[in-house]
Design brief:
335 residues, Quinone Oxidoreductase, Chain A, domain 1, Rossmann fold, 2 domains, seven-stranded mixed β-sheet, 16 strands
Length: 335
């Protein structure tokens, strides 16, 4: 029986590399090739994040070990566990920890992972719900928590969300609005203004207002911001942040550079908080999922959630890099 189990094949999206370059394709992998891990999970759902788009297209060196199953997050149920914290049948979610980069990731019907990588799915959610949130939404929650830790409250003024129609932006808007903040949404897709207002945005602005030449100090327009864009946009976001404000930086859709100045920091006392989700310590990770269960109204996201089969990741990967994917994409790994 053990030999039969070890010879079983599990459907996946496998990234390989040859002299001709890097490719990703629908494939199968044996259990013996899933990698190390004391917990075996039957994966039911994953999601599509910006980093996944980079991985399956090869647009950036996200994958650093070949061949490798892509997918930086997943949710499912425990099959076997040598970790006392988990037992068969437990619903679990995993984000980061090098999955889809150096360890086989979530785009597979089976996963072997360390118990220390897993979080029990909050009772308010199903595994599918957690992937409707995904790493993007979990990162948005970490960003909001960082702003709160820096003293940001609704009374201090509006909060800007850049990349508003994307995964991080959508969840950030919904969270901030429910917490009582006035939200300004910046997007390159102004046609999505109604969708963004439905999430809770009070104002929608064109990203062109922020993506051009940098003004080190501009009119004070917001007390805080969640930025997933980087580059000139982040520099202009900082320049428009009011005295004593805070900005959480969690992405690089426009670029990794930051062509700004120290002016917002030394003349207005603005704080720039970096958000790192891959190796986030477990206590804060658990707190983020607990906060999501409490503070996120999933019904608001419903209009921006698309569920697709595993193979669709290959065609959606290039689209998310071009900013053509709205909201959240849940990957039904079993389809």
């Amino acid at each position: 029986m053990k030999d039969r189990a070890m010879s079983a094949q599990f459907r996946c999206i496998l990234v390989t590399k040859t002299e001709a370059g890097q490719t990703a394709q629908l494939s199968e992998i044996a259990e013996r090739d899933l990698g190390e891990g004391e917990v075996t999970v039957a994966v039911t759902h994953s999601t599509l994040n910006y980093k996944d788009g980079l991985a399956v297209t090869g647009a950036a060196p996200v994958v650093r070990k070949f061949p490798l199953v892509a997918g930086i997050d997943f949710a499912g149920h425990v099959l076997t566990s040598a970790d006392a914290r988990f037992k068969p049948g437990d619903a679990v979610v995993a984000n980061g920890w090098g999955m889809g980069e150096t360890h086989n990731g979530g785009y597979c019907t089976r996963a072997h992972v360390k118990g220390g990588w897993l979080v029990h799915v909050p009772r308010a959610f199903t595994p599918a719900d957690t992937m409707a949130i995904g790493t993007a939404g979990y990162t948005a929650m970490l960003s909001v928590m960082a702003l709160e830790d820096l003293g940001l409250t609704p009374a201090k003024g509006a909060v800007l969300v850049t990349g508003a129609a994307g995964g991080v932006g959508s969840v950030a808007i919904a969270l901030l609005a429910k917490l009582g903040f006035r939200v300004v949404a910046s997007t390159g897709r102004v046609s999505e203004a109604e969708y963004l207002r439905g999430l809770g945005a009070s104002e929608v602005i064109d990203r062109a207002e922020l993506s051009g030449d940098v003004r080190p100090l501009a009119k004070e327009r917001w007390a805080g911001a969640v930025d997933s864009v980087g580059s000139k946009t982040l520099a202009n976001v900082l320049g428009g942040t009011s005295y004593g404000g805070a900005v959480a930086a969690c992405g690089l859709a426009q670029g990794m550079d930051l062509p700004g100045s120290v002016a917002p920091f030394i003349l207005r006392g603005v704080t720039l908080a970096g958000i790192e989700s891959v190796n986030c310590p477990m206590p804060r990770r658990v707190k983020a999922w607990e906060r999501l269960a409490r503070d996120l109204d999933l019904k608001k996201l419903a209009g921006g959630i698309a569920t697709v089969p595993l193979e669709d990741v290959l065609k959606l990967g290039p689209q998310i890099l071009k900013g053509q994917v709205k909201g959240r994409v849940v990957v039904d790994v079993q389809r």
